[in-house]
Amino acid sequence: MEERGTVCYTVTHEDLIDFAHEIMERTKEMNDAEKAESSSSGEADYYTRKEVMALLKRCDSTMTKWAKCGYLVPVRIGGKYLYRKADNISTDRLNNVASLCNTVKFIIYTAM
Question: Which of 69-73, 78-82, 94-98 has the lowest mean pLDDT?
């Protein structure tokens, strides 16, 4: 079996911040594209917060964090916060975004 050498990378704090911003920008672009595509279909159905929590198997605090970060933002209709079904709420898509963001946070934390 062949041994491989050790590789060291030097990553600055600014590099990590730029990387995090790029990931967030790409995520927002994907969300905007999905919203534009789904809004043209004319769907107007909504999920309640409890339905989304059950669908995604996530707790209330995660939903609040995602709303603050812009991953899954509810709309206010008649005094209630609802989630558009047209936003393609799927466990895989949101878990991938959350996992990627957690990785970036870990990288930034360990670099400090």
Answer: 94-98
